[in-house]
Amino acid sequence: MTAGEVTQPKPQGFRIQDLPGKIWSNYVLRRIVRALVIIWLITTIIFFVIRLMPGNAFDLMVADMVVNRNMTEDEAKIRASSLLRINFNRPIGEQYLEYMSNLAKGDLGYSFINNNRTVQELLAQKLPWTLFSVGTSLMISFTLGMLLGMIAAYKRGSWLDHLITNFAAAMDAIPQYIYAIVLVLLLGVIWKIMPVMDMKGVLSPGIKPGFTFEFIWDALMHLRVPAFVYVLSTVGNWALSMKSSTLSTLGEDYVTVARARGLSDSRIITSYVGRNASLPLVTALALSVGFALGGSVVIESVFNYPGIGLELSKSLSNRDYPMLQGIFLITTTSVIFTNLIADLIYGWLDPRIRIAGGE
Amino acid sequence: MDAISTIFKEIWKTLRLIAMNKMGLLGFIMIIFFILMSFVGPYVVAPDLQAHVKEINQGPSVKHPLGTDFQGKDNLVQIVHGGRDILTIAFLAGLMTTFIAVLVGSFSAFFGGMVDTVLMEITNFWITIPKFPILVIVASTAKLTNLWLLALLLAMLSWGGFARQVRSQILSLKKREYVEAAQLLNLGPLHIIFREMLPNMMPFIATSLIFAMTSAIYSQTSLVFLGLVPFSGSNWGIMLSSAFAKGALYQKDAIWSVIAPVGAIALFQLSLVWFSRSLEEVFNPRLRSGV
Asked: Total structural domains in chain B?
């Protein structure tokens, strides 16, 4: 692709009917509009799942309260309405508007089991732990995977490449809970290098959250094993993607030219190959934030780690629909936003994407 | 008939190529072994239904090669009886995933234009949504006791990435001469997609089928482990989750009732991965390393 192929937009007067087209042809605006549309779609789908589907959450909650809490149907309906923050006596259109305006205000209703606590309050309490554990582990695994992938690509065909590639493929296919179980067994029970209590929960008893060294250290100590599991279960995927991305970059003309110009290997590796090969991984990283948030269900259940994953499985067993809805909303919106950010970064790093109109 | 004999010839050629790669051959043999064990084994080995109080949590011995669990049941017998559901669901889910992906990807690439834009927007949207929470929520509310339903659910959630890959494959095939010739002959889109293009994508489809199977095993055993899919009888996931629930993780004696199912799941996954990697090498000469 040469610079000559890029056509400059012709200057013209502003017309309102051109606006959709203008937004569509602008990379940044298009991405933002798309993210907003997706969020709107998801919230709408959730509303219908809660309210209109046969066997929907509202009816299930009412039935549950009638059977298990000895309420009359009307009482149960009023209670469910107040928990979900939707007035179910009003026409469906008004309910929808009310639901949407509540969401826009950040009001997600009340938790079914934790009396009088709002969903957003509980989420604000749980989410930081998940973000802390997932974020830390993701960074470690991403860096490590990129390194291994580049090594495998550079030494392709050697025993090192075979070792890395086969291990990465194998590690990628083994479910997370197997790593969790094997690590607890090995470290805590067979080798006894780590007290089993250090693998449960996030803090030792008696440690108060705050900006103290003691707190941070204790939190990190409790993160060691869960983070190890996250890293083991994701590093293979990063290594494989980085390897294939590096391999395709190595064949590019500019790398050959850089070699011919006699640039040092380290310069070629970092600023020619590494930079370009890591581009496709930026999007993958953003997507994996969401997958890690979803995947935290298993790890947090095994290690009793009080993040949103554990909260999700608790809410499921207690049929806490407002909470489930909140967790689902927060995971999807965060994925969409990280994706948006990734798209914008990608467009900024690689101008071809912006100009060619994506895809 | 002609197509079928070609497929068989292709399979035979593939098998011979697989045999050239040691890891792939090993994976292939292990897959056959697991299939025989799970589908023929239960007719050979009688199920161990009774609890044996005197033989709780034993290590491996001649009588119990993989030890016994918290009820004194033989672990090896449970492994033999516990593979069928997992393998069936994996295969069904893999097949359905590949089917949806091929359909969406090939239509999107072949028809292009508006069809492509709409289908790819839907696909990208679907890829973006975190699937595991959906899976967990649906599995807990819908009571998935039917193997087909669970397989379908797993497939519905995981076709996105494959569909995009199929699309890019078809896009490149579209420029080949034989496809252009078929288009000039007006053979119709269905004929071109299914008779001209797909046979040439068989290698890719076979590998993605295997990948879809590994991811199906990954998700379904996680669901079983979390106790969300109530299967009856023995199943590797159930063995593991009940061992976990009985605190087998923190008792040295009970280790074998954890190792047995973990080993079975991990080994089966590994054999699939090895097999598919050698398939990739077989089909993509650039990757062939002369092992």
From this structure: 1
